[in-house]
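PROTEIN DESIGN WORKSHEET
SECTION A - STRUCTURE
LENGTH: 204
TOKENS:
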């Protein structure tokens, strides 16, 4: 797990190096998580491109992206893939897990996961606004498919400020109790076995 000193970003890191079961590690320069790109200037854009990034997935709501467009919005690498529904005022994230998000936005999270699977060769950058909640859930799902145990997923998540690891472990408990597991949740949400294999191959 390497924090990236990309200019104009406050929460950028490569999840490469996270341990998988069996003694492996997640591949470096495969999956990068960041906060939003509103401050990204020429130096930051150059750093992102020099890192071998082939796809940028913006997980923000469409209303956020319209009000505050990404500086990469016209770039061929950019995709807006909202990871959850626009809020209507009563969808605050519980302080103990992401259970409401994973229940209400199954198809959105599946679409975002599929976008990682279908990205061209190269690094995939995933971001939302602060790079914690929507980004954290999607990255956690991808790391699970790569064979990363939940404790290591939670430890990576906790590297973001104000992100207790229990948010991930409690969410995983919910996915097991309600859907029979994380992989079963993804498959039941529209992700295909081929998508799972593609993400696993990308990250390991």
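SECTION B - SEQUENCE
RESIDUE ASSIGNMENT:
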């Amino acid at each position: 797990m390497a924090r990236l000193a990309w200019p104009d970003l406050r929460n950028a890191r490569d999840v490469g190096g996270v341990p998988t079961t069996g003694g492996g590690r997640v591949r470096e320069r495969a999956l990068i998580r960041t906060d939003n790109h509103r401050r990204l200037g020429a130096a930051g854009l150059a750093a992102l491109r020099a890192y071998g990034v082939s796809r940028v997935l913006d997980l923000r709501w469409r209303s956020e992206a319209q009000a505050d467009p990404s500086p990469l919005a016209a770039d061929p690498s950019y995709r807006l893939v909202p990871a959850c529904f626009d809020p209507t005022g009563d969808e605050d994230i519980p302080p103990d897990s992401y259970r409401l998000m994973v229940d209400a936005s199954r198809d959105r999270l599946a679409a975002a996961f599929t976008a990682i699977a279908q990205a061209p060769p190269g690094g995939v950058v995933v971001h939302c606004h602060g790079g914690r909640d929507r980004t954290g859930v999607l990255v956690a799902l991808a790391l699970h498919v790569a064979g990363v145990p939940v404790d290591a997923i939670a430890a990576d998540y906790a590297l973001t400020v104000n992100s207790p690891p229990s948010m991930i472990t409690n969410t995983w408990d919910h996915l097991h109790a309600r859907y029979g597991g994380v992989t079963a949740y993804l498959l039941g949400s529209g992700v295909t076995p081929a998508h799972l294999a593609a993400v696993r191959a990308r990250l390991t």
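SECTION C - NOTES
The mean pLDDT is 94.
Residues 179 and 188 are 8 Å apart (CA to CA).
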